[in-house]
Design goal:
Porin, 2 helices
């Protein structure tokens, strides 16, 4: 919190100077409310409201440009089983707070920001720094504190370098928090190949290992972790892509210290009516104690079909299939957009335990059968 407040104060202290020559100063906000009900009496109903105010500005001088974004995430939500039996809590926290210097081929961005990459959409091995839910129309995700450099070559190749520091919570696929006052660093190269591009990505950090359940008075040394990723996407008659990640923890106390994530996907838009878009992805997670060894595997298949109904409405169907428990997890979504308003209605019918119950992004509110209504106003 202290870090983001320093960024806020620095940017606000410079605001009067920026206003003198700025090409653009904007304030906007997003107000959303949601209600979720499923047939699990143990979970009850979910009700919430969120407001995200955003202040941004831009200053240009020849090829040089400075811009910034400041925003907060204020929400109040909880679950209730009856009018007199509820559990609600609210919080206000920084959402974004960054400043960026850029030219036509270079940018440097410092502060609380979103960093994401890769081609997969439903099952993402390269979900390293965000937790975007494909079912969420707002794509809400916490940011990370860091410094990001990007350079764009004239042939559309680009290189990323980043350093992260002070991120106290888990992110992406992480189960353990990064060691306090421990920097993280990495980089990425994207290079055009044929009608698409190929990407190579690396990231290093140290995390604090914990037993489950924890044993009091026992503290382990920080565990080094390295991630290596390769991904590609090509637009042919079909859209084709893949992501593959190897993650390694250098610790004998973790029995499956190699994790291999792989997704392959494709999509195509059929000329039916207004255009039926179908997307499918196949995902494998392999856990083992050696790099090339087959160990504990998890296999998932996901499919998404969306169809625009006129100018304002869209239908989307999403289904996940788990080869482990031979179960389907289904979501059907209707979305209407009217000027500044967005209406989002989702129905779901799933097994009593969610497919992602062992993953860090899991939530039990989508177990069983139910509906979710979300109303969004942008100003």
């Amino acid at each position: 919190m202290a870090k983001i407040m320093k960024i806020f104060l620095l940017l606000f202290a410079s605001l009067n100077m920026i206003k003198l020559n700025a090409q653009e100063i904007n304030f906007k906000g997003q107000l959303s409310g949601w209600f979720l009900k499923n047939d699990h009496a143990s979970e009850g109903s979910l009700l919430g409201i969120r407001y995200i105010p955003e202040f941004s500005g831009r200053l240009s001088s020849g090829p040089h440009q400075f811009d910034f974004e400041l925003s907060a995430n204020a929400y109040y939500s909880g679950n209730f089983k009856s009018a007199n039996n509820g559990n609600f809590a609210g919080k206000i926290k920084p959402y974004r707070g960054w400043g960026r210097y850029s030219t036509s081929q270079f940018e440097a961005r410092l502060g609380l920001q979103k960093i994401n990459f890769g081609s997969a959409l439903l099952l993402r091995p390269l979900m390293w720094f965000d937790r975007i839910d494909p079912r969420d129309p707002l794509q809400i995700t916490d940011g990370v504190y860091g410094l990001l450099f990007r350079y764009y070559f004239l042939n559309n190749a680009n290189i990323w370098l980043w350093g992260l520091y002070g991120n106290d919570e888990t992110k992406g696929w992480e189960f353990f928090k990064t060691t306090d006052k421990s920097p993280e660093f990495g980089g990425r190269i994207q290079y055009p190949i044929f009608t698409g591009e190929l990407g190579l990505t690396y990231h290093h950090r140290e995390f604090d290992f914990q037993l489950n359940p924890p044993i009091p008075f026992i503290k382990f040394d920080p565990v080094p972790e390295d991630r290596f990723g390769i991904d590609g996407k090509w637009d042919l008659e079909l859209g084709l892509w893949f992501e593959s990640v190897v993650q390694h923890q250098k610790a004998e106390l973790i029995p499956t210290n190699y994790q291999h994530f792989t997704t392959i996907g494709l999509d195509y838009t059929f000329g039916i009516g207004n255009g039926l878009h179908i997307l499918a992805e196949y995902f494998i997670l392999n856990l083992s104690d050696k790099l090339l060894k087959t160990g504990k595997r998890t296999e998932l298949t996901a499919i998404s079909m969306d169809y625009p109904i006129g100018m304002f409405d869209k239908l989307n169907f999403m289904s996940y299939y788990s080869q482990d428990d031979k179960e389907f997890y289904n979501f059907i979504i209707w979305q209407r957009t009217l000027d500044n308003w967005l209406f989002h209605l989702m129905g779901f019918w799933n097994p009593s335990t969610t497919i992602f119950q062992d993953l860090p992004t899991s939530t039990n509110f989508f177990s069983g059968k139910g509906i979710q209504l979300m109303i969004v106003f942008n100003h």
